[in-house]
Amino acid sequence: MATNKQNTMALILHRRIVWICLPLLCVFLLNLLYPRVDLLAGTARAIELSVKAIPLDPDNPHNTNVGGLRYIEGYQLDADDFRFGGWSGLRAHLIGDDIQYTAISDAGWWLRGIVGKAQAKLHPFDPKAAQVHKSDYDSESLIRFGQQGFLVAFEQNHRIQSVSRIGALSQRHPFSDIISGFGLSKNGGIEAMTWLTPQRGSLFMIAEKGQDSASTLPAWVLGTDMSVTKYRFKPPHNYAPTDAVTLDNGTVLILTRRYTVIDGVSMKLVKLPSSAFNKNQPVGDTLLVGGVIASIKPPLNIDNMEGLDAVRMPDGSIRLIMISDDNFRNLQRTLMLVFELT
């Protein structure tokens, strides 16, 4: 029969094992949820994507209509590359019969590919990226600039960078000096931005945070003369803007999303008519309130949708392309969804 001394020693040994193993278990679980290493390391490379076609409605694949949208196609994307994920901005255009997309991650990486195809390419946002902290490349929104270039809005280190093409060195855009006076919080940067006209004149921006007692968010229109017009955007209740796009007729579509532990993720697409941006507004911030044209929530296939763009097809129809940000977490997915605007 074991003595009291033996029992005590066994108890002490057991506790030591627990205290040694518990931190290791925590590290394992954290790595499972946040499996990232040095995201800024590496150079441009071609990658093979895992492209899994998914229905909008897993319970009824024939259900393709949701509000003012018709589901065309969708894919769950993955890649055997630690830099893949975190896509927070998206732009797309037609190349022949294909839709080419360009996405940017909140870790400073470009992704370029064709919707529905496995071949893609990763590029570092800036050749100097490995020399700086990851927070300097926390991108939130993306728009076209020039023939092949882009403007990218970053948060934490709030600024707008311009690139003449993917792979080129970026430059600080003069808009950066303007947004520096907006009083943006560290993690509440320019979450959505879009040119208000196809000629890329005035630039519309919405902040991620800064909600007031009326549940509105600060928004601005920056003119070509660097003038600033203030607005307040009222998103759907408990939803936050993640991207925006302007259609040919001046209508602005704003992608908004919500996350709760109980309900999971959901999204609403908001429509603002061009008339909402009244150039002769009275003194004070004009309120922007749009109409919801589509709502998507579980059990429909949805995740943390952050990127949105629109493409005019040869038949005149408008395709909306959306991409989700998986936050580099194994429990989330990268989805690319394509809808027709009805």
- Which percent bin holds the helix content? 10-25%
**Rg, Å, rounded:** 23 Å
Strand content: 35-45%
Return the domain count: 1
> Which fold name is given in CATH as the topology?
Tachylectin-2, Chain A
Number of strands: 24
Class by alpha and beta content: mainly beta
pLDDT average, as an integer?
87
Cα end-to-end separation: 80 Å
Shape: globular
Architecture (CATH level 2) name: 5 Propeller
Q: Low-confidence runs (pLDDT<50, min 5 residues)?
A: 30-38
Largest sheet: 6 strands, antiparallel
SSE string: HEEEEEEEEEEEEHEEEEEEEEEEEE
Number of helices: 2
Summarize the structure.
Helices cover 10% and strands 44% of the residues.
What does this protein look like?
The protein has 342 residues and is mainly β. The chain has a single domain, classed as Tachylectin-2, Chain A. It is 10% helix and 44% strand. It has two helices and 24 strands. It has helices at 4-33, 175-179, and strands spanning 45-48, 50-53, 65-66, 69-78, 87-95, 98-105, 109-114, 119-124, 139-145, 149-154, 159-163, 171-172, 190-195, 203-207, 217-222, 228-233, 240-246, 252-260, 264-272, 286-288, 291-296, 305-312, 318-324, 334-341. Strands 2, 3, 4, 22, 23 and 24 form a six-stranded antiparallel beta sheet that branches. Strands 1-8-7-6-5 form a five-stranded antiparallel beta sheet, with no helix packed on it. Strand 13 and strand 14 (203-207) form a beta hairpin. It is globular. Mean pLDDT is 87; it is low at 30-38.
